[in-house]
Every structure is written in C-alpha cells, then in structure tokens.
Amino acid sequence: MANERANEWASWEVDPSTRTSVHAFTKYAPITATLSTTAADVFTVDRGIPSVNLVRNPSIELNALTEFTASGAAIAQSSAQAATGTYSLLVNPANSAAGEGFYYTTPNLVGHPEGSYLVASAEVRGASASGNVRLVLQDSSGVELATSATHSLTAGFLKISAQCLVGRPPATYRVAILSVAQHNIDFYVDKMHVEVRQDSTIPDYVDGAQGVNYEWTGTANASESKRRAGMSVMRGLRIKNDHGSIAVYVAFDQTASATTGFQIAAGEVFETVWPVDFRTRISAVAASGTPAIHGVVWGIHQG
Length: 303
Description:
This protein is 1% helix and 42% strand. The protein is mostly beta strands.
C-alpha cells in the first residue's frame, strides 16, 4: 500500500481473538513435495468458494443417463475421452438441423427475495477440431433465457458457461448443450456443473471425488455434491524431511531461504506444539539437491 507509516505497525499484524484461538482444528491439507534450491510454495491458504452441484452424475461415471434428455442427437456414456474420471457424455448430432444435442432439467427452483442466479458450466471437446456448440439456459418449455458464446470445438476439453436470474415462482429449467450450425461432428461433454447462487459467479467444477473438502450428499456419482469451505488460517504444521543427508528450510507467509526459514535437518520432523496463526502460504527450499518432504497442515475455515 502506498504511503504507509511505521506508526501503523500494529495494523500489519494479526491478533487472533480468544474465540478463534481456541477453535478446534476443522481443516487439514496433506503436503507432499520434492524441493530444489529455488524456493517454492508447498501450501497456499485458500478458503475457496463453497458450492453445490445439482447434477447427480456430472462426470458420467455411471451409465445412468436419466438426468439427460437427447434432443436431435444420440447420447451415450463413453470412455474415449474424459476431462475428469474415466467417462464423458458422447453426443452424436443427427445432422438434420442446428440446435441438436441434449439438455439437463433442474429440480424445482425458487429464487431468493434478494435475487438468485442459475449458473451452469461444462467442458466440451470435439471428436475432431470442427463444428461448434453453445450452452443454453432455457425455461421448462425450451424458451431461451441465456446462452454462452458460440464455442468452436477443438481436440481438447474447454469450459463453456452461462447464467441467468431465477424467478420467485417455483419452476424447473433446462441446461442444454446444442450445436449452433447443423453438423455431424460428435462431441464430448464432461464436468457438468449446475447451481443456484445469490451471486452470478461461475464456480469451479464440483463433484464428491475432487479431493479434500468435496463430498457427495448421497451415493457417489448419483447425488448432488458440494465443496465445503477450505482453510483460511493455518494453526498447525507437521513436516518430515525425507532425505538422509540434505537439510531443508521452511517459512510461513514469506519466501523460504537459509536466513528466512527454519531448518529441518536431514531425516528430522518439525511439528508445532502450540497453535500458530499464519494466513498466506508455506514456502520451502532445499540446501542442495532435490530432497522430498511430506506432512500435514492443520487449520480452521474462519478466523
């Protein structure tokens, strides 16, 4: 910040409240890294954006496609391509007209009095780098409410998205992925995410298999999924230096070096005894070579 003054030093520090100081650790993150003589961040604090994906089989890991309705195309589970997991949805347009593909129908949705948005995204790729598609939000009768930009299919998965306001009366909506111009190019769809939010943010994809803080609300690949808040404050750390002869240096909230970091000697373990309060990152660097480290960071989701 420009024009800072030394007498403002107290505002540069964090003084945890009594409540947050005794808050039980609610978050953890594994650390595994191979270091070098160039410092690197091995953990970054990121609470993330809590999110709920309404699509129950969003990466098509189950060959149960009842959530999806073909529209001028044939759809099937395919293992030929996948952006996550093993499968994706193969869409084979009939090549009879524009607007061929499929749609997902939401549960009954009710908008919040202060406003709500239906946000949707998916990753798509072509069987070849030809043809185009778009993601379209529709009402229950198929009337267009919003659309993504036209996407020219490539030989790699790319994300497309759209959002629109949700009305107060209960209603269902369609999320369709359709050809823009008539074509017969097969395309694949994966990582389908549909959500109602009070902001119009297009969140990162969610399903219960994506890692720490992700979970299914019921049966895996057959239920809604959510991303819980991540860590906002680090409160504890345990790191082991796996190398037998090379030391490493570790630093909180700054870049590690032999002078700014604390040393973990070869084969030794560093573990905090009392809670700490760091809020940005953990950096580590090797004294030489490429030693490996592993451990865990403990923290809280709010503080």
